[in-house]
Design a protein that fits this description.
By secondary structure, the protein is mainly beta. Helices cover 7% and strands 50% of the residues. The protein is built from three helices and 31 strands. The protein has helices at 16-28, 31-38, 153-160, and strands at residues 49-50, 57-66, 72-77, 81-86, 91-95, 105-108, 114-120, 123-128, 133-138, 144-150, 166-170, 173-176, 184-189, 195-200, 205-209, 214-219, 227-232, 238-242, 246-253, 255-263, 269-274, 280-285, 290-295, 309-315, 322-328, 331-336, 340-346, 354-361, 367-377, 380-389, 393-401. It has a five-stranded mixed β-sheet with strand order 1-28-27-26-25, with no helix packed on it.
Length: 404
C-alpha cells in the first residue's frame, strides 16, 4: 500500500511534485538511504536523552483495534470517545476504554483522506486530502452529522466577486484567499478554543473563528514547500513545520506576523508538539531526531528573531523518520517509521535532561499518529496511549509512570 504522499527513502512528507523530480536520483543511487541511516543524526546537536530506563514505567498493550480498510492517519480523544481517521476518508468513533470486539461507528466516509482531527466541545473537526475542513456534531454519541464545510458558503460567496479576494496559488492560477488548494495536513486550536488553525501542502496556513467558522486570516506562501504540522502554544505563538526543513514562529498582532525562522533540521519536518507551559517546542523530521527548542524571548518588537528559540539538544533512538509527537504532562511521546513508539520524560532539573522510559513495539508498519490521556494517582500517574499505524490498526497502551 502506498502510505505517504511520496516514496522518499526516509519516509518523509514531501510534496508529490518534489518527489517526482527526485525519484530518478533515488533510483540511480540506491545506497543513499543506507548511507544516511548509518550516519549520526544531526551530529552537531548534543543528545539530551540518557540510556533506556525501564524501572520507572510499567507498560502493557491492552488492545489492538481493527476496523479500517486503509491506514490510520489521525486520532483524537474526547471525554468519552476515541476518533480515528483513515487514508480513504473514513472516520470512526470508539469507546475510549477498548471493547473486547467492535468495529466502531462510522462518523463519515468518502470525503478524501483524513489528515488531522481535533475536538472542540461537542464538535469534531476533520482536515482532508480534498482541501476541505469538515465540522461534525452529535447529540447522542452515536449518529454524527456534518454541520459545516470550510470555507463556509458565506465566506465563499463574500470572496467570489471581489477581485481583491484572489491570490496567486500557482503560476497562472489564482484562487480566493479563503480556500486551501491542496491537502489540509494539520489542525490546531488556540488555548481558549476561539481560533482554529489549518496548515496545508499549498504552503499556507489559515485562521478560522470557531464561533461561526469565518476565515479571519490567511498566510500565503508561509513556507517554500508543503506545511506538514501546526501547533499553538498557550500564550498564542503559532509554529508551522514544513518540508522545506524549517519551522516558523508566528504571533497574532492584528493579522499573524513572522517572529522567527528556526533552521536546524536536515530534512522535512513532519511533526511538532509544544509543552504545556509553552516554553519548549519539540520537532520531528525525516532525519530521525527529535529536536528540543527552548524559548529565549517573547518575540517583542526589537527582539532578534534568532533569539526567540534555540536548540538545546536532541532526543535520539528512533532509526527512521519521526512521524508524530505528543506532549502530556512531563512526557514526550514519539511515533516513527521504524514501527515503534518511544516515551521520554523530562528531568526536574535542566541538568537531568530526558530519560527514555519505554519503547513500545507491536505495530508491523510505521506509526503515523498518536493520542494520549494522563490521570494522576497519588505520587504516580498513569497514561493511556493510542497509536495509529499504516498496518490499519490502532493499539491501546497502558503506562504507569512512577515518580522519581
Amino acid at each position: 500500500m502506498s502510505f505517504f504522499p511520496c516514496s522518499c527513502p526516509l519516509s518523509c512528507n514531501k510534496t508529490r511534485s518534489e518527489c517526482q523530480k527526485k525519484s530518478t536520483h533515488h533510483q540511480s543511487e540506491p545506497s543513499t538511504s543506507t548511507s544516511l541511516l548509518s550516519q549520526p543524526s544531526l551530529p552537531l546537536v548534543p543528545s539530551l536523552s540518557s540510556p533506556l530506563q525501564s524501572s520507572t514505567v510499567e507498560q502493557q498493550c491492552l488492545a489492538t483495534i481493527k476496523g479500517h480498510s486503509s491506514y490510520v492517519s489521525s486520532l483524537a480523544l474526547s471525554r468519552k470517545s476515541l476518533f480515528t481517521g483513515s487514508s480513504n476518508g473514513e472516520i470512526r468513533v470508539w469507546p475510549r476504554e477498548p471493547p473486547s470486539s467492535s468495529t466502531g461507528n462510522i462518523v463519515g466516509a468518502g470525503s478524501g483522506g483524513v489528515k488531522s482531527l481535533v475536538i472542540l466541545g461537542d464538535k469534531l473537526i476533520s482536515a482532508h486530502q480534498d482541501h476541505k475542513i469538515r465540522v461534525w456534531k452529535t447529540n447522542d454519541d452515536v449518529k454524527y452529522k456534518c454541520v459545516a464545510t470550510l470555507p463556509t458558503m458565506n465566506d465563499r460567496l463574500t470572496s467570489l466577486f471581489s477581485q481583491k479576494s484572489y491570490v496567486e496559488v500557482r503560476r497562472h492560477k489564482k484562487s480566493t484567499w479563503v480556500h486551501h488548494v491542496d491537502a489540509v495536513s494539520s489542525l490546531a486550536l488556540s488555548q481558549d478554543g476561539s481560533l482554529l488553525y489549518s496548515a496545508s501542502w499549498d504552503r499556507s496556513f489559515k485562521v478560522w473563528r470557531t464561533s461561526d467558522f469565518k476565515c479571519l486570516d490567511s498566510i500565503e506562501k508561509a513556507h517554500d514547500d508543503a506545511i506538514n504540522a501546526v501547533v499553538v502554544s498557550r500564550d498564542g505563538f503559532c509554529y508551522t513545520g514544513s518540508a522545506d526543513k524549517t519551522i516558523k514562529v508566528w504571533i497574532k498582532k492584528g493579522n499573524h506576523s513572522l517572529v522567527a525562522t528556526l533552521k536546524k533540521h536536515l530534512s522535512a519536518v513532519n511533526a511538532l508538539a509544544v509543552s504545556e507551559d509553552g516554553k519548549v517546542l519539540y520537532s520531528g523530521a525525516c532525519d530521525r531526531s527529535i529536536l528540543v527548542w527552548e524559548r529565549l524571548s517573547n518575540g517583542d518588537d526589537g527582539d532578534d528573531e534568532e533569539l526567540h528559540m534555540t536548540v538545546v539538544g536532541a532526543l535520539r533512538g528512533h532509526t527512521k523518520a519521526i512521524m508524530c509527537l505528543k506532549v502530556a504532562s512531563d512526557l514526550v511521546l514519539s511515533g516513527s517509521a521504524d514501527k515503534s513508539l518511544r516515551v521520554w520524560r523530562r528531568g526536574l532539573l535542566e541538568k537531568d535532561g530526558y530519560s527514555c522510559l519505554a519503547v513500545l513495539e507491536g505495530h508491523t508498519k510505521p506509526v503515523k499518529c498518536l493520542a494520549v490521556s494522563v490521570s494522576d494517582s497519588g505520587s504516580d500517574y498513569s497514561c493511556m496511549v493510542y497509536s495509529g499505524s499504516l498496518d490499519l490498526s490502532v493499539k491501546v497502551w497502558s503506562l504507569r509512570v512512577s515518580s522519581v
